[in-house]
Inverse folding.
């Protein structure tokens, strides 16, 4: 019946949400890495 279709749609939605979440996590990690790099540059400049 319809329950199989609903389950499939639900599953697809969950997977796309997880993919989106993973992509956002990667972006956040990249931003954190960029921030660390910037901090080091600033520390070098201010240490002079």
């Amino acid at each position: 019946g319809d329950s199989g279709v609903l389950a499939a749609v639900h599953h697809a939605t969950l997977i796309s949400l997880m993919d989106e979440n993973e992509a956002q996590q990667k972006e956040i990690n990249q931003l954190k890495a960029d921030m660390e790099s910037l901090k080091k540059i600033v520390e070098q400049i201010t240490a002079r």
About this structure: The mean pLDDT is 95. The radius of gyration is 21 Å. The longest helix spans residues 2-47.
